[in-house]
Design brief:
Layout: H1 6-16, E1 29-34, H2 40-48, E2 55-59, H3 66-77, H4 85-94, E3 99-104, H5 116-123, E4 128-134, E5 150-154, H6 159-168, H7 175-189, H8 196-215, H9 224-231, H10 235-238, H11 241-244, H12 259-273, H13 279-283, H14 299-302, E6 307-308, H15 309-319, H16 330-342, E7 346-349, E8 358-361, H17 365-374
Parallel strand pairs: 1-4, 1-5, 2-3, 3-4
Antiparallel strand pairs: 6-8, 7-8
Length: 387
Amino acid sequence: MLDIRCDQMKQLQEMTSESLSQTRLRPDVIFISGRAGSGKTHTIQRYLETFGACSSYFECAFIYSFKDVICDLSRRIFRKQMSSEFEVISALKKSSTKRLLVFDHCDHFLSSSNSLLLEIPKLTNSNAQVILISRISPDLFYESALVEPHTIWFPSFTAKECEMIILNQAVTHDIESYRTFVGLAIGATFHHCNNVKYLRRFIEDNYPRYIQPSLDGKCSAQDWRKLWKLFEPNLKGNSIGGVLGAKDGPISESVELPFDSNYLLIAAYIASFNPPTSDKKFFVKGKQPKSRAQTKRIYHMLGPKPFPLERLLAIFYAINDELEEVKSQLSSLFAQIATLVNLKLLATHGAEGIESPKFLCLAKYEFVSDVSKKVNFELNAYLNDFA
């Protein structure tokens, strides 16, 4: 993967180099931005191996305040618990070693009220350089910050790059037949998902089904046309659900979601299982004109469909029309959407640019129905298949 991300690695080396200050100022803050599955975390973690004790990696999904960050810093760097944030910042400022601090999944720290991560370099006289990793555009966060990060963009992998990554990590006795299946499978499913992690899982789960007819003596392992023809019916159930869905379902359907996250998940489910043309019927007040009779389609049988962020937010606001204040808290909503993706209740979709992200709901009907009951929302009344 590092060969594919050599441009990003080169930028990282340039931006963190000590000698950079001789020609131009080294940026205090670097923002690593890109969609899920674009290799951000893997690339940074490999790069940090060159820093050793001079770097620290923080998984912000499990850190809830700036004070938690400071306490963690004191334990990792100074091997003791310091009494205050000021003491830790002062120690970093006086240290003879420059530090590289990496904060992954940092979205919820970067609202206007939580921009202290951006100020760490300034508070330590540039003795600490900060790298922020996020799936969301930095433009949404640092408008009110005093420091503007240098952004390194990680584009989504192309189909060819996904194929290279999966083959590079392949463990199989018949590499040629596996290589053929990888190319065919990615060609058939890439338009649904370009997340290499999910594609790899799909291929690992389905390669035994693909190669089984050759083991049964029905055809040769080199007869890929016949093998693919026999395997192809499996794609009807796997091209979306099998690729984007978690192997054992979302990593946590028992998690207690925040109030707004409940409505975001409901809105995502409605957007995934309702056609866009039905939004007017369910969410525009007043009498709707009668439309011509159409053939009834069972959208739940077709599987979840992708939807743009704008549609998700529109439905969210429509079912929360009594909560007008949430409209001014976009950064909080984006952080909650990122959390739903981390929980595998949502997944990012396609290769659209970061300015027009698309998502797909992975949560099961039963789970979303239970969530709806908790917030007294009548889910079936807003689903085209049941209304």
